Amino acid sequence: MPADLWPDPTALGLVTDLYQITMMAGYAANAMADKPAVFELFVRRLPKNRSYLVFAGLEQALRDLLRLGFSDEQVSYIRGLPAFRHVPDAWFKQLRDFQFTGDVWAMPEGTIFFGGETLLRVEAPLAQAQLAETFLLSSLAYPTLVASKALRCVQTAGSRPLFDFGARRGHGPQAGFLCARASYLAGFAGTSHVEAARRLEIPAIGTMAHSWIQAFPNELEAFEAYARVFPDSTTLLVDTYDTLQGVRHAATIPQAHAIRLDSGDLGPLAQASRTILDEAGRSEMTIVASGDLDEWKIRDLIATGAPIDAFGVGTELITSRDAPALSMVYKLVAVDGQGRIKLAPGKKTYPGAKQVWRRLDSVGRFAGDQVTAAYETADGIPLLQQVIAQGHLVGDLPDLQSIRTYTLAQGRALPENFKGLDAGPAYPVSYSQALEEEAIRVGLTTG
Asked: How many CB atoms are closer than 10 A to CB 232?
């Protein structure tokens, strides 16, 4: 039988880097595994052409964090690795009984954030907090990339609906699920991914394939056959052969309510298509455009007055092609009550648990953020909220519709000069005096 690479959802402990496991064993050997530790997750700097990011993926990350564990087969596998040859047998039994029992604070999913701000804080026994690193980073970075890309598209498109067409272009089948969720919470109107739509209870959106048209003797017969089978959802793909002739054929189909343009110079084609439809008495038919679209292409189409009513975004969304990776990191900031710091150039961290405060102006727009020690207070709204206490959810997580509403409100509260597609001035993020002084003190004593 072919190998199965899908992980067992009840045994996710090995979905990690090897060094996380070796450090757990090392902590145990040095009587450090149960020392109280604090780790924080943040993005060091924003990617090129990004003035902000949207925090996403929290629901799935927390669900899986609470299910981290090891099967008997996995423990046996670890025991057989050369690196663990001298590890006492008692540690392997502890591994089989592993369960996360710590506390987690996080920004609400859908929060707009900026470089250097703590997004999530884990307070747990050192070995537990260590194991969470790879899983949390991989669970949060990708959805955050997609949600950020999606909100940029939504802000650019204005009132025009956007659809996620990315499933076939993703880096593996699971990417389609994450992209559908992340784009919907950022304002997309639906997804072509059927199983994601079913599970998430969001609109499933689809049109037709070029192969359908090619399978029939001619384009008109293909359109007529499609309309007979799907009279209530007839969007016709018009660019398999001659695009404008395809529009003329579509205009003769009474059930058709839209056409889709998927190639060519979309602006002029949309203009010509609109004229053909209107002259045929089909002014009610709308025009959907797709084909390697991103926020810049959508902006340019709208700026030229292209009469496009909706956009399908696929490859550029699901890969976040212009910014496909984040400098998201997860760093130890305290152990056994003592602050810890990293001093490497370009990778400096601040010691101790933190909170992020956001000030709003008189009309509710973001006016500046301050990162403080967790025990401090500051002007504004505290963004980090406790979501897990002693290994259990503090309360019900918000549903997807609530997260979507919150994300769009965050987008409206972003000052206009940060909504541009090219990165402008950096959003003001400062660090409290207490943090600065503690960083100097810890740096002097540990460096």
From this structure: 7
In tens, the pLDDT along 55-96 reads 999 999 999 999 999 999 999 999 999 999 999 999 999 999
HEC string of 148-204 equals HHHHHHHHHHCCCCEEECCHHHCCCHHHHHHHHHHHHHCCCCEECCHHHHHHHCCCE
Alpha-carbon dihedral angle through residues 192, 169, 53, 414, given to the nearest 10 degrees: -40
Residues 269/271/273/278 CA torsion (nearest 10 deg): 180
Task: Give the DSSP per-residue string, 314-325.
Answer: -HHHHHTTTS--
Q: For residue 20, how many C-alpha atoms fall within 13 Å in the half-sphere facing its CB? A: 16
Question: CA angle, 106 as apex, 175 and 429 as ends, to 5°?
Answer: 100
Q: What is the DSSP track for 36-90?
A: EEEEEEEESSPPTT-S-EE---HHHHHHHHTT----HHHHHHHHHSGGGTTS-HH
The residues pairing with 287 across neighbouring beta strands, listed in sequence order, are 259
- For residue 323, the tally of other CB atoms under 10 A from its CB is 16
Q: Are 257 and 285 contacting, i.e. CB atoms less than 8 angstroms apart?
A: yes
> Contact at 8 Å (CB) between 270 and 306?
yes
Gap between the Cα atoms of 410 and 400, Å rounded? 15
Q: How far apart are CA 409 and CA 365, in angstroms?
A: 10
- Contact by Cβ (8 Å): 296, 320: no
Q: What is the CATH number of domain 148-319?
A: 3.20.20.70
Q: How do residues 381-426 score in pLDDT, each as one tens digit?
A: 999 999 999 999 999 999 999 999 999 999 999 999 999 898 778 9
Cβ contacts of 30 within 8 Å, gap of 6 or more: none
Tell which residue, 50, 137, 56, has the closest CA to residue 322. 50
pTM, to two decimals: 0.95
Rounded to whole angstroms, the Cα distance separating 234 from 161 reads 17
* β-bridge mates for residue 310, sequence order: 288
Q: At what angle do helices 173-185 and 126-157 cross, to 10 degrees?
A: 60
